[in-house]
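Before the break, one more example. Copy the sequence into your notebook; we will annotate it together after we see the structure.
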Amino acid sequence: SQNESCQQLASDELERAVALAEKLKEEGIAFLGRIKGYIELSEQIDDEYASAAMQEIDAVISSLKEKEAEIALAKTKTELKRVIRGLKEDINEARHIAIRLRARLMHAEIGEIVARSAHYESKIEAILAKAAGQGALTEEIGEMVAAYSGKVESAREYSQQAKDSYQKAVELKRDAETLTDEQEDEIKSLF
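Here is what the structure looks like once it is written out:
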């Protein structure tokens, strides 16, 4: 009968929605697991940040796992939509965690590059001083080192600007619930 056919279609649709919800949950947990693994292996992340990030990740994983029972209990399309909306919110939070981690790592890498460059700069200057003391002509090389030193200094300044902008963005994010349009524009301009 037509009624049985409609009920079968509704049941099939609900099963597909349940499968989608399960897939979202599993992908979210797997994604967060990969982030945790990366944090554990990274030498560029300090212990304090790593601990805070792990707690945040564990909270999102717990929330995703709690959704499993809600998925199983959902008997209607409306109930399942609510669960899927919650899953999407958790997955968005996971993405935000990954973005913050990526920014943190990028700043750390830039800082290391600048520090190594400054170290090489001092080594080159020492070599030039030794060569000049032995009577070698070092003016042309000295000019190149001066240009290199200028670039290192410029990199330091850009690195500091990036750190300041990142810190400002973090502070603005903390106040995200009360952001004005001007503050949102300011955040966008930082990136």
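The chain has five helices and no strands. The chain has a mean pLDDT of 80. Try to locate both features in your own notes.
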